[in-house]
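just leaving the lab so this will be short. below you get a single protein, a line of residues and a line of whole numbers that encode the local backbone shape. id like you to explain what the token line says about the fold, in plain words if possible. thanks a lot i owe you, the record is right below:

…
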Amino acid sequence: MFIRTPLCDLFGIEHPVLLAPMAGVSGGALAAAVSRAGGLGLIGGGYGDAAWLNRQFDAAGDARTGAGFITWSLARQPHLLELALERAPAALMLSFGDFRPFLPRIRDGQTKLIVQVQTLDQAREAVDAGVEAIVVQGTEAGGHGGARATLPFVPAAVDIAGKIPVIAAGGIADGRGLAAALALGAAGVLCGTAFFASGESLASDNAKQAAVRGSGGDTERSSVFDMVRGLDWPSDWNMRTMRNSFTQRWSKDIDGLVRNLAGEKVRFEIARAADDTDIAAVIVGEAADLIRGIEPAQATLHGMILQAEDCLRRISRLVEPNSKR
């Protein structure tokens, strides 16, 4: 059995799995490893650092990769789009903000545009704009997200998307999740948490270990880390991270954090430099239960595909032949 979907044809990949462009985690080495394993790796452009982005494209070498950006942040630094397009990426993914002003320039560069959405209205905007693919992100995802759960959100978006491939994201970290996404009508999946603890990931050693030890039940959504990092995220989105002493102290006392913000910023930066995950953020989603060790990205991806194939075979055996009806 060989899983091939329109997503494979769109990007010229063997497996319908994309690496989420996790800021500060999905560097060039990880993106290249996912691409060389048959998926499509996306470098996490994050909040914008031209020197860092150039280093990561260099680290990807000759692997065919793409990049992802936080749209509202990119609007403040449009030169980063030019930097990325000069590298002729396989795709660009834009998330969290109005992608439409960037569409003409991306199409001039003949790069395929993926837009991530958190609502059906956003999905309709992407469909109307004729983007090449849509990532439908459920609230189970690590990092920033919206309020829709993956299971009902994906098929609702598929019904809107028509021939545009839908990529499911949020809570998907193994072959069972991939098989489920395909059953919902998605053409593939975008995975971040699944690759967070990969050997090639830029996450710190302590953060990887925290993710391996953690569970989806240990995560929560809040804005405390955005506040302490000085990131003025729009109120539509907050961030899922592992729960730690910092979130326990402040997530239910935002007013208190505001009053103590200057000192807490200093404490947070010291913890981040020391790789202290009891204070610094470990940005993974509800699929943390499925991270069971640190391994190469290739092993994670190929294990996911083998498990998905097995799931799809078992599911097909549940359907009786017409002759028995």
Q: What stands out?
A: The chain has a mean pLDDT of 94. The chain has two domains: 6-202+295-316, 215-273.
